[in-house]
């Protein structure tokens, strides 16, 4: 019962009822349209302010710009490039050590291109991906064959890997926002085609939505039993927030729910004192054994700290845990030596008995890819941050190791991504006037 009560005249009651109706209708409209989250978290999406830890580390803007430009040149244009133009309108990214082109690299290349405003490279990569990898009919229509042999011009596998579609959609939405849809490719329409195709897949022929709709988590592969488990490095909640903002396909609430579910999942997957996670897990975060390797922190897992840092900077919905995670993760690697930590671990921090080969080479090393993503984790530190990992990345080189091993593809792309994050050049691209 109200402690204080009052009575309104009839006209007063009518005005109050009208106001209440308008508020109710407005709230209903906002809910139906999937309104953006409140800006209380102060993520860069809301403030348009992206941190540059490289500036905080003492490097000048001119030095930073040259560093990013050189990394792009080395990966896309230099003598050890992994990007190859084809004819006058197409191109692909090759995992040179595995001698294939995969949706991972092609979609990463598109993300780099749209972030750095390299429209021709972006368009070439998309045309090649659409022509050679995207299924145009059948149960897999709209999805992409994850691996292709450029030497034989044949697919190594018909099935998709969900992270490729994740990056394709997000980079296409960013391209639509940056360049519009009237310059030869309707980027928005292409993104929607992938999403709409995914929503039509109900298990017929063993093919499903990219996301396990019951668990609200991205699947490892949306086909067969692989639909029932996941890869922690595919959990990029920041991208799902982008989908909720710009896909406009009526599934905004689902995408935001998946973003929140991914954040909760990462708490479980990265629960070890070391901050390390398994490459493949159940939706619970517990390890999922595979035929090719026993559970451990390996190459896929390198991406997890960078993905969490992206979510921290862009949307800031889980900052307290993300800061604590970064302290655990970097603290563990620091205990192994910032310039000496190896690249595969059991999640308790011990050395694994089984070493997963990189291409044809089976050896633990201090890999540039993990150096890069561990530096990106510095973005999650409260001010003033420790910058030892940032300086380590700055001083690292994309070059052959002492034993001759060289991976300009995976090491190179993670190196470039991390430099972009640490310089504030990896951003949510919002709609621009065209």
Verbal overview:
- By secondary structure, the protein is mainly α.
- It has helices spanning 10-33, 44-47, 53-56, 61-76, 103-115, 119-132, 162-179, 187-200, 237-246, 252-269, 303-314, 319-336, 368-376, 388-395, 410-422, and strands spanning 83-86, 90-93, 101-102, 147-149, 154-157, 211-212, 217-218.
- The longest helix has 24 residues, at 10-33.
Q: What is the radius of gyration computed over CA atoms, rounded to a whole number of angstroms?
A: 23 Å
The amount of beta strand, in percent, is: under 5%
User: Roughly what percent helix?
Assistant: 40-55%
Largest sheet: 3 strands, antiparallel
Low-confidence stretches: 1-34
Distance between the termini: 57 Å
Mean pLDDT: 92
Count the E strands.
7
Outline type: globular
Structural class: mainly alpha
What characteristics describe this protein?
disordered N terminus, 434 residues, 5% strand, mainly alpha, single chain, globular, three-stranded antiparallel β-sheet, 15 helices
Task: Give a brief description.
The protein has 434 residues and is mainly α. The chain contains 15 helices and seven strands. The strands form three sheets. The chain has a three-stranded antiparallel beta sheet. A two-stranded antiparallel ribbon has the order 1-2.
Q: Topology of this structure?
A:
Elements: H1 10-33, H2 44-47, H3 53-56, H4 61-76, E1 83-86, E2 90-93, E3 101-102, H5 103-115, H6 119-132, E4 147-149, E5 154-157, H7 162-179, H8 187-200, E6 211-212, E7 217-218, H9 237-246, H10 252-269, H11 303-314, H12 319-336, H13 368-376, H14 388-395, H15 410-422
Antiparallel strand pairs: 1-2, 3-4, 4-5, 6-7
Helix pairs in contact: 4-15, 5-6, 5-7, 5-15, 7-8, 7-9, 9-10, 11-12, 11-13, 13-14, 13-15
């Amino acid at each position: 019962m109200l402690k204080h009560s009052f009575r309104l005249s009839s006209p007063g009651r009518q005005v109050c009822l009208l106001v209440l109706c308008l508020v109710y209708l407005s709230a209903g409209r906002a809910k139906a349209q999937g309104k953006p989250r409140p800006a209380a978290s102060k993520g860069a999406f809301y403030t348009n302010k992206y941190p540059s830890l490289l500036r905080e580390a003492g490097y000048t803007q001119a030095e930073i710009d040259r560093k990013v430009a050189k990394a792009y040149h080395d990966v896309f244009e230099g003598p050890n490039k992994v990007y190859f133009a084809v004819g006058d309108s197409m191109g692909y990214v090759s995992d040179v050590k595995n001698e294939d082109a995969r949706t991972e690299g092609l979609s990463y290349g598109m993300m780099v291109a749209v972030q750095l405003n390299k429209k021709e490279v972006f368009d070439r990569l998309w045309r090649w991906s659409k022509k050679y990898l995207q299924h145009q009919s059948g149960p897999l229509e709209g999805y992409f064959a994850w691996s292709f042999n450029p030497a034989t011009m044949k697919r190594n596998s018909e099935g998709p890997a969900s992270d490729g579609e994740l990056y394709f959609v997000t980079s296409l939405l960013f391209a639509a926002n940056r360049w519009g849809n009237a310059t030869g490719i309707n980027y928005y329409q292409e993104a929607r085609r992938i999403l709409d195709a995914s929503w039509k897949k109900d298990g017929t022929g063993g093919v499903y939505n990219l996301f396990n709709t019951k668990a609200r988590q991205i699947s490892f592969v949306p086909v067969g039993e692989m639909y029932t488990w996941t890869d922690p490095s595919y959990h990029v909640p920041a991208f799902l927030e982008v989908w909720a903002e710009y896909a406009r396909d009526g599934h905004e609430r689902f995408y935001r729910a998946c973003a929140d579910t991914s954040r909760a999942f990462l708490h479980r997957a990265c629960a070890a004192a070391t901050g390390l996670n398994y490459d493949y897990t159940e939706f619970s975060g517990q390890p999922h054994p595979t035929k090719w390797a026993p559970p451990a922190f390996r190459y896929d897992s390198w991406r997890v700290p960078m993905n969490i840092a992206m979510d921290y900077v862009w949307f800031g919905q889980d900052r307290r845990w993300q800061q604590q995670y970064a302290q655990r993760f970097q603290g563990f690697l620091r205990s192994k030596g910032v310039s000496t930590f190896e690249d595969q671990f059991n999640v308790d921090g011990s050395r694994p008995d089984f070493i997963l080969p990189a291409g044809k080479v089976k050896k633990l090393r201090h890999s540039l890819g993990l150096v890069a993503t561990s530096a990106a984790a510095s973005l999650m530190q409260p001010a003033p941050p420790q910058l030892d990992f940032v300086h380590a990345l700055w001083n690292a080189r994309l070059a052959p190791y002492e034993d001759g091993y060289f991976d300009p593809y995976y090491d190179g792309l993670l190196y470039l991504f991390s430099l972009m994050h640490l310089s504030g050049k990896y951003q949510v691209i919002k709609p621009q006037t065209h």
